[in-house]
Amino acid sequence: MRVLGVDPGLTRCGLGVVDGGGGRAVSCVAVDVVRTLPDAPLARRLLEVSDAVESWIGVHRPDVVAIERVFSQHNVRTVMGTAQASGVVAVAAARAGLPVAFHTPSEVKAAVTGAGRADKQQVTAMVARVLGLTEAPRPADAADALALAICHCWRAPMLDRMAQAEARAAELARRHKARLAAAAKGASS
């Protein structure tokens, strides 16, 4: 599975592509950070992020796009910009026909470091170790994008199994209700 991980942001948007094999084997394909000028018009900045993501999708052909779920921050302006960048990334993925998965920062940290409250240095160090990189990706947005992709590679199989189990349980419940209804109808005849 090839995953494009995106750490959304207006000033810096991290992009990382990871290939995941069976088990926990993952490898880095590409990593970069899209930068936009803070004094540029908002629409222009969002277009630059969207264009970069569309280009990465075209070049790297991911199977899925994993985006960091926006969480409440103290600075409303920052969270709004992050949410807007996240939205244009999701639209770019949808236009390409790709599924989009959202992961919270604590899910990503827990998956990569084992601790949901790990700091940026711990995440960066573990990303470098897990991917066998000779040096840590910089800035932190790049490491976070790779961490998102790793997280999705490791969590997706479990999430798929859970969804399949839920679908089987729903089908069994539907069949059971139908049998009960048929038995009740037969008893009343």
From TrEMBL:
Which HAMAP family did the record assign? RuvC (MF_00034)
Q: Name the job this protein performs.
A: The RuvA-RuvB-RuvC complex processes Holliday junction (HJ) DNA during genetic recombination and DNA repair. Endonuclease that resolves HJ intermediates. Cleaves cruciform DNA by making single-stranded nicks across the HJ at symmetrical positions within the homologous arms, yielding a 5'-phosphate and a 3'-hydroxyl group; requires a central core of homology in the junction. The consensus cleavage sequence is 5'-(A/T)TT(C/G)-3'. Cleavage occurs on the 3'-side of the TT dinucleotide at the point of strand exchange.
Q: Which domain of life is it from?
A: Bacteria
Q: Where does Mg(2+) 1 bind?
A: D7, D141
Cofactor(s) needed, names only, are: Mg(2+)
EC number of this enzyme: 3.1.21.10
Q: Answer yes or no on keyword Lipoprotein.
A: no
Which reaction equations make up its catalytic activity?
Endonucleolytic cleavage at a junction such as a reciprocal single-stranded crossover between two homologous DNA duplexes (Holliday junction)
Q: How does it assemble?
A: Homodimer which binds Holliday junction (HJ) DNA. The HJ becomes 2-fold symmetrical on binding to RuvC with unstacked arms; it has a different conformation from HJ DNA in complex with RuvA. In the full resolvosome a probable DNA-RuvA(4)-RuvB(12)-RuvC(2) complex forms which resolves the HJ.
Say which family it is in.
Belongs to the RuvC family.
Write down the species.
Answer: Pseudonocardia bannensis
Q: What does UniProt list as catalytic?
A: D7, E68, D141
In its UniProt record, a GO molecular function of this protein is: DNA binding
Binding positions (Mg(2+) 2): E68
What is the annotated localization of this protein? Cytoplasm
State what protein this is by name. Crossover junction endodeoxyribonuclease RuvC
Q: Which UniProt keywords apply?
A: Cytoplasm, DNA damage, DNA recombination, DNA repair, DNA-binding, Endonuclease, Hydrolase, Magnesium, Metal-binding, Nuclease
